[in-house]
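Hello, quick one for you while I still have it in my head. My current little project is about how a certain protein chain folds up. You're getting the sequence in one-letter code plus the fold written as C-alpha cells. Would you mind checking whether the C-alpha cells look sensible for this chain? Here's the protein in full, and shout if anything looks odd to you:
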Amino acid sequence: MAGSPDPDGGDEALGETMIRFQSYLHGGTSSLLSAFPTVVVFPVYKTVFRQQIHNTPVRQAVGQLCREGPLKLYRGVAPPLLMRTLNGTLLFGLQDTLLRWLALSSHSVLPAAALPALAGFGAGFVEALVFTPFERVQNVLQNGQNDRRLPSLRSVLVSLKAQRMSHGYYRAFLPVAARNTLGSSLYFGLKGPVCVAVTGQGLSPMASSFVSGTLTSMAVSLALYPLSVLVANMQAQVGGEGNGAAACWRALWRSRHGSVALLYRGGSLIVLRSCVTWGITTAIYDRQEKRSC
C-alpha cells in the first residue's frame, strides 16, 4: 500500500535509535562509575589548580591546602562530580551520533579514519557550550582568595549571574572551546588506533582499552595543558577588568617569565589524573559498547 511504513525499515530505524541511546547511556554510566576516583584524586586536581593560579612549586601548593584545613579541601568538588557524569553522557553519545551521521552523509568524500576525530571535534564544541559555566563555578570555588567574599556556592552563582555572560558564566569560553574541540578530536581520533596497537601486544580487550584511554588522554592533556592554565587564570576571579584571551595570555606568559617549564607547573600531575579517570572511563565504555553489539 502506498505510503505504508516498511516494517523492516521501521525496525532498522528503531535499532539505530536504540544504538544512539545506548551510546549516551554507556557514556554516562562509565563516567558515573569513574566519579569515585574523581573524588579520591580531587586533592591532586586542586593542587594542580593552585600551581596554575599562583605559580608555586608542588610543596608550597600542598602547604596552602594543609593550612586551609580538611573542611576546605573539598570546596568546589560538587561541580566536577556533576560535570563528570553529564560530560560523559554528552561527549560519548554525541560523538557517536555525529559519527554515524558523518558516515552516512560523507560517503567516500572523507577518509573513514578521519571521521571519529571530526565527530569528536563537533562533540567537543557542544561540550564547551554546555559545561563552561560548570568549570567557571568550579574555578571560582577552588580559588582560596574568594573564600571570604564568596563563601558559598549560592554566593558564587548570584555574583556570576549579575555580570554579563562573557564576564560571568561564559568567561574564557574561546580558550575552553579551543581546548575541548582539539582535545576531543585527538582523543577519539587516537584511542582506536592506540587500542589496536596495544591489543597486538597480547593484552586483554579491557586492559587494552584502559591503556589506550590512559595514553591518549595523557598525551592530549599535556599537549593542551597551557590552555587549561589560561582558562584557570581567566576564570578564578570574579569581577575586575575582564580582559580577552589574548591579553590574558600575554599577562600569563609574563608572569611565568617566558618559561615553558614554569607554564607547565603541575602538568606532571595530569598524568595521574588521566590514568585514574579517562583510563577507567574508556575501559568501561568500550566494554559496554562491545556487550551491546
